[in-house]
Every structure is written in C-alpha cells, then in structure tokens.
Amino acid sequence: MLIIAAMTAWRRGLKAVKDWRPVARQAAIHAALATLLISGSALAAHHYNHYATRAQANERSVLAEILAQPICTTQMAETVTAAMN
C-alpha cells in the first residue's frame, strides 16, 4: 500500500513539474530580455556621449556622425575630447 501511495504522489509531483515548466521557462526568458534591455540602454547612453562629442567637434549632427563612423570606440572619443581642449 505504501508503495502505491508513493508512486501516486510521485506521478502527481511529476505532473506538477511539467505544468510549471513553461512558466519557469517564460520567467527565465523575461529576466534575460530585461537584463539585455537595461544593459543595452546603458551602453547606448554611454556611446551617445561619444557621438555627441565627435559631432560637436566636426560640426555635424549626431546622426551624421553615426552614419559617418558607425563603430564608436572610447579611444576615438578621447582623441576628439583632447583635440577640443
């Protein structure tokens, strides 16, 4: 009798795990997307300052500067900042 009760409890537990699995998967995906969104916006703000500095030094708009040199490097921004001073 005890074995039958244990098997029944195990089956119910397994069924509960299967039901929660998609929810856990969705929670992990949402957490990963939120992390990427937050870190991506922080990086975009950091690079915007570089582009704005270069745009001001070259007397262009920020969009024109992004199109002129789409890859922002800290080294280039420091060179432009040093040239402005």
Portion of residues in helices?
Answer: over 70%
Topology pattern, helix = H, strand = E: HHH
Describe the global form: rod-shaped
What is the radius of gyration computed over CA atoms, rounded to a whole number of angstroms? 27 Å
Q: Please tally the β strands and state the result.
A: 0
Mean pLDDT: 75
Short structural summary:
This protein is mainly alpha-helical and 85 residues long. The protein has one domain (2-84). 88% of the residues lie in helices and 0% in strands.
Word description of this protein:
Helices cover 88% and strands 0% of the residues. It is an all-alpha fold and 85 residues long. Helix 1 crosses helix 2 (62-68) and helix 1 runs parallel beside helix 3 (74-84). It has one domain (2-84). The protein contains three helices and no strands. The protein is rod-shaped. The longest helix is centred in the middle third of the chain and has 57 residues, at 2-58.
Features:
85 residues, 3 helices, mainly alpha
How is the secondary structure organized here?
Elements lengths: L1 H57 L3 H7 L5 H11 L1
Helix pairs in contact: 1-2, 1-3
